[in-house]
Amino acid sequence: MSDSKSPFEIIFSYPVVLFDYDRTIMSLAIDWPAARESCRAWLTEKFPGFATGTTERMDEMEAAAIGQFPDRAHDIFEFRRQLEGSEMEEHTPQPEVISLVRDLAAPKDARRLFIISNNLHATVKTGLRALGLAGHFEAILGIDDVGLPKPSIKAAHLLHEQYGVDLQKSILVGDSPSTDGEFCRLAGIPYFNIQPFTTHCR
Q1: Residue 1 pLDDT more than 80?
Q2: Is the whole model's pTM more than 0.70, yes or no?
Q3: What does the buried/exposed string (b/e) look like for 54-80 if buried means 16 or more CB atoms within 10 Å of the residue's CB?
Q4: Which of 85, 73, 84 is nearest to 47 (CA)?
């Protein structure tokens, strides 16, 4: 994997590698555009006074709701808990990234690996266990751990404060320039877009 011909070679030059989850390690079997509309209706019904536009992603709507109702974050993520609770066999692993994680975590060449995801902590943890990767990651920061989705850099601050991560020695592997890529731009760390190198990205 660290062969000079590998597109992933640059990743091996960093001692800390951050990963996104959905569509990076595992693709969740979720119709996100439809989920966005359902989430908007659900939030409007459950939280009187909540208002949002028509173009926000689901995680952006959740962040807006938390901003308006900061003491009800657990309730705000209830729709996502139901949505992401589908059976694991319906989700699609990304074999190239799974191999990359295993190579990065190899004892002879071990690096510190973390997940920063706009999915729930439990969703990521369950998926990593199913793939046999849970022990390779030092920590998972899900949207419910952080409270704000990428591209907010709150997760970067938490990694530095709670785990002593040197962001200047880190790289993030993700699939979305608008969330993962923008997170990296704001945090001042390199971004590796995995999508051109995966088989099953939608």
Answers
A1: no
A2: yes
A3: eeebbbbbbbbbbeebeeeeeebbebb
A4: 73
